[in-house]
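Record Allantoin metabolism protein, 246 aa.
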Amino acid sequence: FVSVAETGSFSRAAEKLYKTTATISYRIKLLEDNTGVALFSRTTRSVLLTPAGMHLLAQAREWLGWIDSMPGELQQINDGVERQVNIVVNNLMYDPQAIARLLAWLTQRYPFTQFHFSRQIYMGVWDTLLHDDFSLAIGVTGTEPLAENMAVYPLGEVTWLFVMSPHHPLSQQTDPLSEAQLRRYPAVNIEDSARRLTKRVAWRLPGQKEIVVPDIETKVAAHLAGVGIGFLPEPLCLPLIAQGKL
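=>
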């Protein structure tokens, strides 16, 4: 059926499959009789798929692909490899290029596993890991696991720098900044994405206005635009400081 649909001809399909044209024609007629619908519209020059035939072709291609991949998929399951792996990554550590390289490695090593990545903020990483059927988290807060069946492995420490735009009024101050001076300008913070766990409280002085943004990229852009002050991870800050942008 698939060969006839792809070649548009009983004779060409017969040549491809090393069968006689009569054999191919008979098998298609038998298939149509068994299904009770016409799969091809026959003309003197070619055969065209009917709507039912187009639907069957799409399904048949899926079946053939499934049959081809099934031995490898079954072997992977037999080896104890998960069929679905969900990974949550801390917003501060999320790098699209790094994730793409990780995916390239994972899909090459585990071709029959489906991977799902999620990007969360602060306690939202733990929240997703604990409650949303995720297997691995990269960049959880704290050093102790929040469940007995989990283990935490250190990746390193994040150093935070207090930054502002060079055009911000406070950047002209040469003396140590007091809380009273800092409180006059809004703090730019990222909203914790936790839904069930207690949200992490970001840096903000009592009485200080807060600007809440959805991700680290917006927070960096807000600091560059001079709309607020706050802390950023050192690896993000140093190149911008070297360029005179922070």
